[in-house]
Amino acid sequence: MNDHAESHPGSAGRTGRRRFLKLAGLAAAGTALAATEARAGAASLLSRTAAAGTFVVPIEDVRHTRTWMAFPDSTSIWGSKLSGVQADIALIARTIAKYEPVIMCANSASAARARSLCGSRVTVISSIPVNDCWMRDTGPVFRTDGAGDLDAVGLNFNGWGGKQTYSRDGLVAERIAAYVGVPFTYADLVGEGGAIEQDGAGTLMATRSSLVNSNRNPGMSERQIEAAMRAAYGATKVIWFDGVRNQDITDDHVDATSRFLAPGKALVQMPLSTDTDAYARDARQQFSVLSASTTSTGAPMAVSKLQGPDYNKIRSTNRDFLASYANYYLCNGAVISGQFGDTQADAAARATLARLYPDRVIEQLNIDRLGTGGGGIHCVTQQQPVR
């Protein structure tokens, strides 16, 4: 989700990503926040012990056992946009299901609709209830040890800093781990999967605006948060970007702008040269920082550019729309990315992704309804890697 809104040029002063969602469930969020903090505290010793082992969050291009998704059904969150968003979620699920199994978590009341929209190739379950569709942020982060074992870590999801209700979403990570039957621990920080990118070989990247933030980790220093991230992901280095604060619900997730391609290789979605808003400046800063960075082993970082679209040429006129090609999802044999109606930019993005992933099919989907919520394909998916 989120990753993280991009915005139309010159729009830096607006509230931004999923602005309308903030109206939903704030009272409930406060109660759930207290529960999450208590649970995280109780689990902190256990999570530190588990993370000290050999488990590592692998890079996302490893082979997957399945993809996890969530089916939204809340009109208090989505209003009149709900049916369109449901259709986009189903389109993503059906597309991924051509390449690997997909499990869709749906509430009992909407499971039948989810099955109807998703088709028989997608497995819909109602035993893991959800508030919303952002599985990247609510789901577990799976880790492997290279010896056939799998476990999972929860990032203590708190509704992006208490901005949205998460009474169900706050429990999704541990419930999925229980469904899979793998050990589960909570990390020693509050965050979301879209806030942290990993190369699987010791290096992470993230924005300070999202994680070094009192709405997630009050009283924690950047050094303490970094240590918790490294422990949870089995990493040794974090590349930090400043990010953008208080303009979108995620406080600028990294996965809409910068992604790892491989250890020592990354990409950044670049704005047009005429774009001057906060997110355009952020993207340029991320490219600059990454280009001057090294990996956990000291190797230089090679950074590719992925050109973003012209917001004046895309289909959507919604000012909170996320037009991020970089928010793609890797599944077995394919890259699932968005296309937004700027035909020249869409074609160029497809060509870039085909060059970067020559052994994968490039699927570009129209997910405009989901994009009005400020999220994309990576935001609503969570991979379960092969052990």
UniProtKB/TrEMBL annotation:
Pfam families: PAD_porph
Keyword tags: Hydrolase, Signal
InterPro entries: Peptidyl-Arg-deiminase_porph, TAT_signal
Signal peptide: 1-34
Protein name: Agmatine deiminase family protein
